[in-house]
C-alpha cells in the first residue's frame, strides 16, 4: 500500500504501508525494502491527482512495470457531475470559478481552510478523458462504469 502523505495502517503482515510518490513506485518501494514485483496493481481515483499529463504517463509506466495485471479506476472527465465536489460541470469552469466553488460548496469531502488550500485542491485535480486513458494504458481494456447509462468512471484493466 503506497500513499503520498501518510502510509496508512495495517494489522496484516502481508500489507505493508509505505509513504512515497506513486510515479516512482518502484524506487520508493525498493528504498523501503519492499518487493517491486506484484501479481496485480490496484489504483482507485489516483491518476487524476498526480500532477498533469507527464506525471500520469509516469504513473501508468510504473503500474505496467510493477505487475502483469492492473485495475486502474478514475472518474471520467465528461461525467456531468464533478465527483470530488459533487458540483455539476465544475471540471469545465475556469480555475478561478472552481476555486470559489471549492471554498464555499457544502458537498465537498473536506472543506478547505482558506483560498490557497482551495486553489491547491482545484489545480491538483484533473479529470481524465477516454483518449488519455487509452494513451496511458494502450494494451489494456478500458471499461466504462456507468450510472443511468452515462459513463461515470473509466477502468483500465489488464
Describe the structure.
With 158 residues, this protein is α/β, with parallel strands linked by helices. It folds into two domains: 2-77 and 126-157, Rossmann fold (3-Layer(aba) Sandwich), CATH 3.40.50; 85-124, no CATH class. Helix content is 30%, strand content 22%. It has five helices and eight strands; from the N terminus they run ββαβαβββαααββ. The protein has helices at 25-31, 53-66, 95-104, 115-124, 130-136; strands spanning 2-3, 18-19, 40-44, 69-75, 81-82, 87-88, 141-147, 150-157. The strands form three sheets. It has a four-stranded mixed β-sheet. Strands 1-2 form a two-stranded parallel ribbon. A two-stranded antiparallel ribbon has the order 5-6. α2 (53-66) links the parallel β3 and β4.
Layout: helices, strands, pairs:
Blueprint: E1 2-3, E2 18-19, H1 25-31, E3 40-44, H2 53-66, E4 69-75, E5 81-82, E6 87-88, H3 95-104, H4 115-124, H5 130-136, E7 141-147, E8 150-157
Parallel strand pairs: 1-2, 3-4
Antiparallel strand pairs: 4-8, 5-6, 7-8
Helix pairs in contact: 3-4
Largest sheet: 4 strands, mixed
CATH level 4 superfamily of the largest domain:
Vaccinia Virus protein VP39
Radius of gyration: 17 Å
- Quote the distance from N terminus to C terminus: 19 Å
Strand order of the largest sheet: 3-4-8-7
How big a fraction of the residues is strand? Answer: 15-25%
Low-pLDDT runs: none
CATH names the topology of the largest domain as Rossmann fold
The topology string of helices and strands comes to EEHEHEEEHHHEE
DSSP helical segment count:
5
